[in-house]
Amino acid sequence: xxxxxxxxxxxxxxxxxxxxxxxxxxxxxxxxxxxxxxxxxxxxxxxxxxxxxxxxxxxxxxxxxxxxxxxxxxxxxxxxxxxxxxxxxxxxxxxxxxxxxxxxxxxxxxxxxxxxxxxxxxxxxxxxxxxxxxxxxxxxxxxxxxxxxxxxxxxxxxxxxxxxxxxxxxxxxxxxxxxxxxxxxxxxxxxxxxxxxxxxxxxxxxxxxxxxxxxxxxxxxxxxxxxxxxxxxxxxxxxxxxxxxxxxxxxxxxxxxxxxxxxxxxxxxxxxxxxxxxxxxxxxxxxxxxxxxxxxxxxxxxxxxxxxxxxxxxxxxxxxxxxxxxxxxxxxxxxxxxxxxxxxxxxxxxxxxxxxxxxxxxxxxxxxxxxxxxxxxxxxxxxxxxxxxxxxxxxxxxxxxx
Length: 402
What we know:
The chain is of the alpha/beta class.
């Protein structure tokens, strides 16, 4: 059973969902006109419980869309869409706690989902440093690789890397993400010793010259690289495999107690773009996150130290990437900060026709803006200065009282 808060931009979008879920055209037309404050999807609910939930929702002034199989008392389970105001929800949850057919558990799931979804304040804490994510922050990309898709070879020397790190900080980055292995589609793995040779001297020299007043993330899926990077001054592990490529990664993160990014990927960088397919990309990624979080918690990783990244471009079609951005708010149901990394990626070129990654700044800004409006707390970008100015205006408009 799952409970997830869902949002709909318009009555037309809501009506399509209602029809897809099994409601009649007449019923969908009536329900869409009732509006929404909170629209909460509950999956895997007993059909008997679904009928009771609908009646209780109506009794408090809300409503609940149930499919025909439930309203005709067909045995089994189904998905429903609950529509209530916050006040109506409080009254409804009290009713559900005393109802049969698993509705007490439904009330807990709904309450948890709403609490997670409405959480706006997150903080990353490590080694006495704290980064408040109430306002979205920028992660600047620093690839010390010869073959990254848009900036490979630009910062392979230690001096060049340190200078670039300083530029990223001055331009407004709160986190600098250092990577020693390209994970572009089709890329080959880099040997462990080579990756260590690329990133460790850079991290050490950055800390020596620029101090300890900012966060460094290490972009790696190798536990040994993560461990050496953390020992050298890194603060965050950014694992594009979501702890799945290296079985020891969760142990390293648990040992250090550091923040870590769980990214979704289908396949490996070498083969991930070979005909990836999903029935519902957002739901499948959501399930992946839930399963991964449960697994790493059992290994000692603290959930409050995790960040989720749905993995734009990592085993995704163009339409998958667009759907992730459109429905990014659904990942807020996890109760964790969401990171999005869309900067300069190929789906922008596919949509706009721009083949040169370096010239995809306008598309990258659009993706960052959509992501922030949908709830992203960290945006990973190459163009920090431009992104900061863009987001400063976007957030100022969002926050102004008028």
